[in-house]
Amino acid sequence: MEAGRIGGRGIEWEAVRTLLAHHTRTPMGRERAEGAEPHTDPVTIRTVLQETSQARRALAEAGAPPLDSLPDVRPALHRCRVPGSVLDGTELVQVAVLLEGVPRLAAYGRGVQPAAPRIADLTDGLPRLGDLATREEVMARYGRPLLVLYRLPARHLPTADAPWGDARFQPAQQ
C-alpha cells in the first residue's frame, strides 16, 4: 500500500495528515500528525477508532485537554544529557512550565474517565511530581530560583531520586 493513497479509494493521505496536523495543539502532536501512516491491521484499526471515539466524547464533555501551554522541551532535554551541560534560564522556564502542566493534564484525564477510559489510562501514566517543590516553595526558599538554578549543571537538577528536599537544594547556612 502506497502511503500517499489508501487502498485505491482516492483518499489523499497527505491531505489527511495536513488536516490532522492543522488541528494539533503542540509541536509534538504536529510532528506525529505529519508523520502518520495508515494502519492496515484490522485489530489496530478497531483500537484506534475506539480511542478516537473516546477522544471525541472527552472533547464534547470536557472540552480540549490543557495542552496549549506545554512547550517542546525535547531540544533542551537532549542537550542537557551531555555531562557538564547547563540549561539556560529560558530552557529552565520551559521545563518548569511543562512540569506545571502535567498535573492539569492528569486531572483532565481523571475528569473524562467515564466517557474516555483509554484517555484516562494515558494520562494516568504521566509521572507524578509530588516530590518536586512548587514554584511558590522554590521562591520561598531561594527568592530568585532561576538565578540559582540556571548556573547548576543539568546533572544537579532535581530528579525523582534527589527532589527539591534533598540537602543539595537547601539554602546555604549563614
Walkthrough of the structure:
By secondary structure, this protein is mostly helical. It has eight helices and no strands. The chain has helices at residues 13-22, 27-34, 42-62, 74-79, 89-111, 117-124, 135-142, 145-149. Helix 1 runs antiparallel to helix 2 (27-34) and helix 5 (89-111) packs antiparallel against helix 6.
SSE inventory with pairings:
Blueprint: H1 13-22, H2 27-34, H3 42-62, H4 74-79, H5 89-111, H6 117-124, H7 135-142, H8 145-149
Helix pairs in contact: 1-2, 5-6
Number of strands: 0
**Biggest β-sheet strands, sense, barrel:** none
Q: DSSP strand (E) fraction?
A: under 5%
Q: Please, how many helices? A: 8
Low-confidence stretches: 145-156, 164-174
SSE pattern: HHHHHHHH
Shape: globular
Q: State the end-to-end distance.
A: 70 Å
Helical content class: 40-55%
- Oligomerization: single chain
Structural class: mainly alpha
Q: What is the average per-residue confidence, as pLDDT, rounded to a whole number?
A: 77
Rg over C-alpha atoms, rounded to the nearest angstrom: 21 Å
Brief account:
With 174 residues, the protein is an all-alpha fold.
Q: Tags for this entry?
A:
disordered C terminus; 8 helices; globular; mainly alpha; 174 residues
